[in-house]
Design goal:
By secondary structure, this protein is an all-alpha fold. The protein has one domain. It is about 55% helix and about 0% strand. It has five helices and no strands. Helix 3 runs antiparallel to helix 4. It is extended.
Length: about 130
């Protein structure tokens, strides 16, 4: 069973997880790649618009709380962006970046024959 830490810094350790860092690196590489759709700029633009906007859920003149509100929006936006950008990108471009980063197998769908057989053994625990 995969347990997540329940300490005060659980969110920070989750953000610094190697998998999340790799997702963010991949998203950054894909944003800089011109072969990816221009839609990739929509979420960063919305995040910047919210942070720069004078209308906030918690006003910025409340020192500390207003900035934490913006930091939370930036963090959530980055996590969404790390998952969304690879989905907006063509599969072969994502595969190329994944290979270049040394992250393992490409993310493209299997293009083998329907007659391919994979034998496996697994256990299910309740």
């Amino acid at each position: 069973m995969n347990r997540r830490p329940t300490t005060a810094f659980a969110g920070a350790t989750m953000l610094l997880d190697r998998g999340r860092r790799n997702q963010l690196r991949l998203a950054w590489r894909l944003i800089r790649d011109e072969r990816v759709s221009a839609l990739k700029f929509a979420l960063p633009a919305l995040i910047a618009l919210y942070v720069l906007s004078p209308v906030d859920t918690i006003p910025d003149f409340l020192l500390g709380l207003g900035q934490i509100d913006d930091l939370g929006v930036i963090t959530i936006g980055l996590m969404i962006m790390a998952r969304l950008i690879p989905r907006l990108s063509p599969g072969h471009v994502v595969d190329e970046h994944v290979r270049d980063m040394g992250m393992g197998f490409p993310a493209a769908k299997h293009s083998g024959n329907a007659d391919d057989v994979v034998e496996a053994q697994f256990n299910v625990r309740g």
